[in-house]
């Protein structure tokens, strides 16, 4: 018997969130496994779009491996207080990427390189920075609070932005790129998401209440920009979803578009307030 779409969507979403939360909450090694898999799948989708929709040849496997090297290097650097030696595999990836174009005999090698590097900058870099987030709470020790707060804030914002937009949305937020998003939805989602940070302020007092509110505000603003940027990519390439890995939800990258710009923004925010 075929399940209704809404049931499939709920079940798939629950499994995805359960795996993600389990990876974050258990320990640093489950985090390593889940986020390594996440970065590989996001890059697989992205470079697949480039090859199929943009019709630009890239070395998909090598680029995915490069993103994995970057994430693994960041983890090793944070866990073992290693030197830049941790990033040697990623440096090798970059050198091979450029040298290989000398032998590929492509019509437009600069275009292929540009798309390869876009995936590293837009996806691999931000996801690799999650290593900083999980070791920033107590330097040298793993703690899930910052990455959990970031994800919860995005989920709350997305949910209430959708509900508020459906009920009251009249003024388009960025019609050229995402016609369905409204200013009313943005404000409604932001208010609830920022207010929800008071829960983290109550239980995790390493940041002041004001700092937690600022944390949530940064996530909301940059999360919205991240969502819009991924929409820009999809609109440019003429596709609706980044993939179909999550039934009823589209691709993995579709579920993480808001997170991708929020991660480096939060890292900068935490570094600034620590000064």
TrEMBL record:
<keyword id="KW-0548">Nucleotidyltransferase</keyword>
<keyword id="KW-1208">Phospholipid metabolism</keyword>
<feature type="transmembrane region" description="Helical">
    <location>
        <begin position="7"/>
        <end position="26"/>
    </location>
</feature>
<keyword id="KW-0472">Membrane</keyword>
<feature type="transmembrane region" description="Helical">
    <location>
        <begin position="115"/>
        <end position="137"/>
    </location>
</feature>
<feature type="transmembrane region" description="Helical">
    <location>
        <begin position="85"/>
        <end position="103"/>
    </location>
</feature>
<keyword id="KW-1003">Cell membrane</keyword>
<keyword id="KW-0443">Lipid metabolism</keyword>
<protein>
    <recommendedName>
        <fullName>Phosphatidate cytidylyltransferase</fullName>
        <ecNumber>2.7.7.41</ecNumber>
    </recommendedName>
</protein>
<keyword id="KW-0444">Lipid biosynthesis</keyword>
<comment type="pathway">
    <text>Phospholipid metabolism; CDP-diacylglycerol biosynthesis; CDP-diacylglycerol from sn-glycerol 3-phosphate: step 3/3.</text>
</comment>
<feature type="transmembrane region" description="Helical">
    <location>
        <begin position="143"/>
        <end position="164"/>
    </location>
</feature>
<feature type="transmembrane region" description="Helical">
    <location>
        <begin position="32"/>
        <end position="50"/>
    </location>
</feature>
<feature type="transmembrane region" description="Helical">
    <location>
        <begin position="62"/>
        <end position="79"/>
    </location>
</feature>
<dbReference type="Pfam" id="PF01148">
    <property type="entry name" value="CTP_transf_1"/>
</dbReference>
<dbReference type="GO" id="GO:0005886">
    <property type="term" value="C:plasma membrane"/>
</dbReference>
<feature type="transmembrane region" description="Helical">
    <location>
        <begin position="210"/>
        <end position="232"/>
    </location>
</feature>
<keyword id="KW-1133">Transmembrane helix</keyword>
<dbReference type="GO" id="GO:0004605">
    <property type="term" value="F:phosphatidate cytidylyltransferase activity"/>
</dbReference>
<keyword id="KW-0812">Transmembrane</keyword>
<feature type="transmembrane region" description="Helical">
    <location>
        <begin position="185"/>
        <end position="204"/>
    </location>
</feature>
<keyword id="KW-0808">Transferase</keyword>
<keyword id="KW-0594">Phospholipid biosynthesis</keyword>
<comment type="similarity">
    <text>Belongs to the CDS family.</text>
</comment>
<dbReference type="GO" id="GO:0016024">
    <property type="term" value="P:CDP-diacylglycerol biosynthetic process"/>
</dbReference>
<dbReference type="InterPro" id="IPR000374">
    <property type="entry name" value="PC_trans"/>
</dbReference>
<comment type="pathway">
    <text>Lipid metabolism.</text>
</comment>
């Amino acid at each position: 018997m075929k399940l209704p779409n809404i049931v499939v969507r709920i079940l798939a979403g629950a499994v995805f969130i359960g795996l993600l939360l389990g990876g974050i909450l258990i320990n640093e090694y489950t985090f390593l496994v889940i986020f390594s898999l996440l970065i590989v799948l996001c890059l697989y989708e992205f470079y697949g779009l480039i090859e199929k929709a943009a019709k630009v040849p890239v070395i998909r496997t090598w680029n995915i491996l490069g993103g994995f090297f970057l994430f693994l290097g960041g983890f090793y650097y944070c866990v073992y207080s290693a030197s830049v030696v941790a990033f040697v595999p990623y440096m090798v990836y970059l050198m091979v990427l450029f040298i290989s174009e000398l032998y590929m005999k492509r019509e437009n090698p600069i275009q292929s390189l540009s798309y390869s590097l876009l995936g590293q900058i837009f996806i691999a870099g931000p996801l690799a920075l999650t290593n900083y987030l999980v070791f920033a709470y107590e330097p040298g020790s793993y703690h899930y609070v910052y990455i959990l707060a970031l994800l919860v804030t995005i989920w709350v914002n997305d949910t209430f932005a959708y509900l508020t937009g459906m009920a009251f949305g009249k003024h388009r937020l960025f019609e050229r790129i995402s016609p369905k998003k409204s200013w009313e939805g943005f404000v409604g989602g932001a208010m609830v998401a920022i207010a929800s940070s008071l829960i983290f302020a109550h239980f995790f007092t390493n940041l002041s209440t004001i700092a937690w509110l600022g944390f949530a505000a940064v996530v909301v603003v940059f999360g919205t920009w991240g969502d819009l940027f991924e929409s820009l990519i999809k609109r440019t390439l003429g596709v609706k979803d980044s993939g179909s890995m999550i039934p009823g939800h589209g691709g993995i990258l579709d579920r993480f578009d808001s997170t991708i710009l929020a991660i480096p923004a939060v890292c900068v925010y935490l570094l600034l307030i620590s000064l």
